[in-house]
């Protein structure tokens, strides 16, 4: 096959979930299907910064109509944006639609996002949704036929076992400081923990609503026990997961929730929201709470801090759960969708 993909979102100095997804899919497809021809297409700003392909079956292209001289059998937009149809068969991945359903962004961004999402749905033969919850939103909000949606979850890499010592008395949160991540309620619950516990916040500090979050932290009676690290990646993020005793992710809205899987892969006991997508990811391997109930968040934290057996239970369950999600599986399922579409067009 000749496959073109929008690789724009793989270029980011501070990779988020969508960047991780894009890189894993692009690399996985190129490595696992070496006889196919691939074009990684970028918008101009990202094209200038994109690395040159290391594999012979990959070309680099500008994402401008047309994509010639590369004539693709199929085009895949990796982040719910598809401004035109670059190939006879088109696929787009939808990660979430929370921008359309709640006050988690500016009105201007909401309008632009909504228009892009509608256009992507109109131009797509198939949509990849990263969770059943996102699939249901695509159908409800955009009127896209559920039969043409394929749910393909994200994956995670299981790190090698480390011989590091005992975990520290730290509650870890990973993600941008933004309103929908529910960090203020997490801070309020954390304030009630014993003084020997610390809260570590690892993520960008310029998300939507970050100002109010930072103000609340500065006013906290536990301020000296709260560490704001900013964006963290690579070995340092790995170390944080390994050293934390609890991973707390009480988000109000997610399309998937990669940090939950990452924490589980490191054997860190997880506390997360009883919201549809996070329930899908966590299964019965995390302590689920009502994200809007500070008392529930506090009680879950207390249970995990006070009961080593319970923490060990969720550590083991989480690691077993993480092993059910792999990037290889996501790549293979995506390629199967490509083959299905291309074969149907030539039948």
Could you please describe the fold and organization of this structure?
This protein is α/β, with parallel strands linked by helices and 347 residues long. The protein is built from 13 helices and 13 strands. The strands form 2 sheets. The protein has a 7-stranded parallel beta sheet with strand order 3-2-1-4-5-6-7, sandwiched between helices. A 6-stranded parallel beta sheet has the order 10-9-8-11-12-13, sandwiched between helices. Helix 5 (132-142) links the parallel strand 6 and strand 7 (149-151). Helix 6 (183-190) packs across helix 11 and helix 9 packs across helix 12.
Provide tags for this entry:
347 residues, 7-stranded parallel sheet, globular, 13 helices, 41% helix, 6-stranded parallel sheet, alpha/beta
Q: Could you outline the blueprint of secondary structure elements for this entry?
A:
Elements: E1 2-6, H1 17-32, E2 37-42, H2 44-49, E3 58-62, E4 74-77, E5 89-94, H3 98-101, H4 107-123, E6 126-129, H5 132-142, E7 149-151, E8 170-174, H6 183-190, E9 198-202, H7 210-218, E10 226-230, H8 234-243, E11 246-249, H9 258-265, E12 270-273, H10 276-282, E13 287-289, H11 294-306, H12 308-322, H13 327-346
Parallel strand pairs: 1-2, 1-4, 2-3, 4-5, 5-6, 6-7, 8-9, 8-11, 9-10, 11-12, 12-13
Helix pairs in contact: 1-13, 6-11, 9-12
